[in-house]
Amino acid sequence: MGIFETSVYKAGSWSGNEESNDWLFRISVHDSDIATIDYRSDEGASGRFYLGFQPRDYFDNPDASEPVDLVAVSNSFSSWASREVGTTVSPEELRAFMASEAVEEPDDIFVEDTVVRLLERLGIPLPNWLED
């Protein structure tokens, strides 16, 4: 059985309080296969992408998630990372982390490994459940 966790990030720290509306970054892991990444800022940059598998592919159901425009979301997330966490990372580098449509097998067996690599690249500390 895989991990099911959700954490939200704001002002340099993580919490499990996804009900609050003041987060900037949220990670939700589903059964160690899908990580949903949501980001937003006061300046209006926001979006969603996935690590591992996109839900529409994982569940073999196109209604399980909206299609992701990887070019648009990687450009937006690159700007978000620069503005919100002060990390410069190219959209191309970010796309390498993101789940593409119809992926057969992601690079990492456990999506938590991809989450850790992304957070380390962004310079964002790990939530407690990923520290081990």
Structure notes:
The structure is a single chain. The protein has 132 residues and is α+β, with helices and mostly antiparallel strands. The protein is built from four helices and five strands; from the N terminus they run βββββαααα. Strands 2-1-3-4-5 form a five-stranded antiparallel beta sheet.
In brief:
It is built from 4 helices and 5 strands. The protein is of the alpha+beta class and 132 residues long.
Number of helices: 4
Overall 3D form = globular
* Lateral strand order in the biggest sheet: 2-1-3-4-5
- Write the element-wise H/E pattern from the N-terminal end onward: EEEEEHHHH
Radius of gyration using CA atoms only: 14 Å
Main sheet makeup: 5 strands, antiparallel
Q: Report the end-to-end length measured between terminal Cα atoms.
A: 17 Å
Low-confidence stretches at least 5 residues in length (pLDDT < 50)? none
Structural class: alpha+beta
Helix content: 25-40%
Into which percentage range does the β-strand content fall? 15-25%
- Count of distinct strands: 5
Chain-averaged pLDDT: 92
